[in-house]
Design a protein that fits this description.
The chain is an alpha/beta fold. The protein has 14 helices and 14 strands. The longest helix is centred in the middle third of the chain and has 16 residues. The two termini are 25 Å apart.
Length: 358
């Protein structure tokens, strides 16, 4: 069997996640990894094939709206004679709609991964992509979800249950350890880490309010691109030296040190779909506290983390104290080598009913 494993999005963690998993697939099967031609793979040994998408963001947006460009890229993939096409990233884009339809017309099985089956609140682009996703999900031969909690939601969109497969987010720690900057050892502080893009739905205000219910030995560190709301900025300022805010992208080479200095990783989201952070934090020995929302309901208990209800700073503070005492674990099934076996099982059993990978 020949697999065309494709990604349209390579920003942030999506690029390394796609190439690291793709490489494991290549070690076990005949797999072509298809990515935008401008992307430079960070995975040694991974053989990448490129389709044309401009590096410049504005041009990339224009190209993503072009059926001619979409067809040229799809034809490249089709000419490689794949037995199955897996669109790992890119669901909801215009290209994904066209690709799903053309694969159907060509009689090639088409699998799509739904990273965010539910649009994030306050993000217009997510709502727009969600409108396009429904067609792709219904047209696909198989729909890959990262959490069981979204099964009823996707079925409600008209997708037959037998099309669904659930394989959780893989552990990317091997990648971050490989690219880590070697330097002096980092001492662990009594620090709660929030790491990721700063968005209103991620409950940063709840974390900052929770800090007032922790004893003064605890510090809060917020790291990621974006910006705080005026309310969040005021709360951070009110904590004085106990809160450190670092706005901007963190190079992948510094991620290991970021976790090494932290005692707890907090995911206080008001709405969640999926994230690589629970398994990543646990792999670095950092306990996880998060809200009972979306995929976190499965992902956080799986790494021996603590779940609390959203928007409750007092409960979050108590959860941080409890998480601090937890010993994180990482299930072997989250290793990318094992995940590759799960995906290969899907490719070889395209018409099997719903499968849940533990």
């Amino acid at each position: 069997m020949k697999i065309a494993y494709c990604g349209m999005w390579t920003s942030g963690v999506m690029g390394p996640l796609t190439t690291e998993l793709g490489y494991e697939l290549q070690l076990k099967s005949k797999t072509d990894i298809w990515l935008p031609s401008f992307y430079e793979s960070p995975t040694p040994g991974a053989a990448i094939k490129g389709f044309h998408l401009p590096r410049q963001r504005k041009l990339r947006v224009v190209t993503s709206l072009s059926p001619k460009s979409a067809h040229k890229a799809f034809q490249q993939i089709l000419d490689s004679n794949p037995d199955v096409i897996h669109l790992f990233t890119g669901l909801g884009t215009p290209w994904s709609v066209w690709w799903a339809n053309w694969a159907y017309q060509a009689g090639v099985p088409f699998i799509v991964t739904a990273h965010d089956p539910r649009p994030h609140p306050g993000r217009t682009i997510s709502t727009f992509l969600d409108h396009l996703s429904g067609f792709v999900l219904r047209r696909a031969t198989k729909v890959h979800l990262l959490s069981r909690c979204f099964v009823p939601e996707v079925i409600a969109q008209g997708v037959h249950p037998d099309k669904l497969v659930v394989i959780p987010h893989g552990d990317l720690s091997q990648y971050y350890r490989r690219v880590a900057t070697n330097g002096p050892s980092i001492s662990k502080e009594k620090q709660v880490l929030f790491f990721g893009r700063l968005e209103r739905y991620k409950g940063i205000d709840t974390l900052l309010r929770a800090a007032k219910h922790l004893d003064s030995s605890w510090n809060i560190r917020i790291v990621g691109p974006g910006k705080l709301s005026p309310q969040e900025s005021a709360l951070a300022t009110s904590l004085g030296s106990r809160c450190k805010v670092e706005i901007g992208y963190v190079p992948d080479s510094e991620v290991v040190n970021l976790f090494a200095s932290s005692a707890v990783c907090a995911l206080p989201y008001t709405q969640a779909t999926q994230s690589s952070l629970p398994s990543l934090a646990a792999s670095f020995g950092v306990p996880v506290i998060g809200t009972a929302s979306g995929g976190f309901v499965d992902d956080i208990p799986a790494v021996n983390g603590i779940l609390v209800e959203p928007n409750d700073p007092i409960e979050l503070a108590r959860g941080i104290e409890l998480a601090y005492l937890q010993a994180p674990i990482v299930p072997g099934s989250l290793q990318l080598q094992k995940q590759a076996d799960s995906y290969l099982g899907v490719y070889h059993n395209l018409h099997a009913p719903l499968e849940i990978a533990a």
